[in-house]
């Protein structure tokens, strides 16, 4: 596939990379320079909670493919931020579930809102990319960085 061929979702590969850059940009601006694994664990946890299935540590490891030591470190950050809390599983008291807090739910809604905005912006992205040279594209990237969301603390 070339960068100019349109895919099944109606965007060229170049435009899809621009969307990918924007998603990474939003997440980095919001959550800092954390490892991608931490973002993967956080988004996996939030998504599973949203669907009504708060995961255990073991389930997070299996769903993400990350080592338990890494997942434990990433979950510790989520607990310290107050985005999740540990609760005893009523069906198996040996298991602890990672349940989203109100603060975590608010963060999920922010993520959904930001992605909705991003996908609303991608209309016409291919033509915008074609019309911009590197200098104009860099200026837009800097503009987006200046408008980036505040970091969660």
Q: Indicate the overall shape.
A: elongated
Overall residue-averaged pLDDT value:
79
- Here the CATH topology equals Arc Repressor Mutant, subunit A
Just give the CATH class: Mainly Alpha
- Return the structural class: mainly alpha
What is the share of helical residues? 55-70%
Low-pLDDT sequence parts: none
Q: What is the CATH architecture descriptor?
A: Orthogonal Bundle
Strand order of the largest sheet: 1-2
Strand content: 5-15%
Number of domains as seen in the coordinates: 1
Order of helices and strands: HHHHEEHHH
Total beta-strand segments: 2
**First and last CA, distance:** 41 Å
Overall radius of gyration:
18 Å
Largest sheet: 2 strands, antiparallel
Q: Superfamily at the CATH H level?
A: Winged helix-like DNA-binding domain superfamily/Winged helix DNA-binding domain
Helix run count? 7
General description of the model:
By secondary structure, the protein is mostly helical. It has one domain (13-122, 130-146): Arc Repressor Mutant, subunit A (Orthogonal Bundle). 63% of the residues lie in helices and 10% in strands. The protein has helices at 13-31, 36-50, 57-64, 68-81, 102-121, 125-131, 134-146; strands spanning 84-89, 92-100. The chain has a two-stranded antiparallel sheet. Helix 2 (36-50) packs across helix 4. The radius of gyration is 18 Å and the shape is elongated. The mean pLDDT is 79.
Concise synopsis of the structure shown:
The protein contains seven helices and two strands, in the order H-H-H-H-E-E-H-H-H.
SSE map:
Blueprint: H1 13-31, H2 36-50, H3 57-64, H4 68-81, E1 84-89, E2 92-100, H5 102-121, H6 125-131, H7 134-146
Antiparallel strand pairs: 1-2
